[in-house]
Structures are given as structure tokens and as C-alpha cells.
Write a structure and sequence with these properties.
Shape: rod-shaped
Helix content: over 70%
Number of strands: 0
Radius of gyration: 28 Å
């Protein structure tokens, strides 16, 4: 009777460990998603700044 109980306990422990790792992966994936969206927002803002600077430069060149 010991070995079947040990197998059940080991199986439950294994599932518990896998559950903990799944939660950790989920949390880190969400954190990565937030960082990616923040980076995309910053890149878009920099691209808009660059576009505005290019327009100003083109206007100043045309005025020469």
C-alpha cells in the first residue's frame, strides 16, 4: 500500500510544481508583453519626431 500512495503523492507534487512554473511563465510573459508594447510606443514616438525633423529640414533647405 505504500508504493501506490507514494506514486499518488509524487504525481500530485509533480503537478503542483508544474502549476507553479506555469504561473511564473504566465507572469513573465505578461511582463514581456508590457515591455514590448512600451518599446513599440517609444519607437513610434521617435519615428514621429524624426518625421517632423525631416519636414523642418526639407522646408529649411527649400527656403535656401
Amino acid at each position: 500500500m505504500f508504493w501506490p500512495m507514494f506514486a499518488v503523492a509524487a504525481g500530485f507534487l509533480g503537478l503542483a510544481v508544474l502549476g507553479v512554473f506555469a504561473v511564473r511563465v504566465f507572469v513573465e510573459a505578461r511582463r514581456l508583453g508590457v515591455q514590448v508594447s512600451e518599446s513599440a510606443r517609444r519607437i513610434n514616438r521617435a519615428a514621429e519626431d524624426l518625421e517632423r525633423a525631416a519636414v523642418r529640414t526639407a522646408r529649411s533647405v527649400e527656403s535656401l
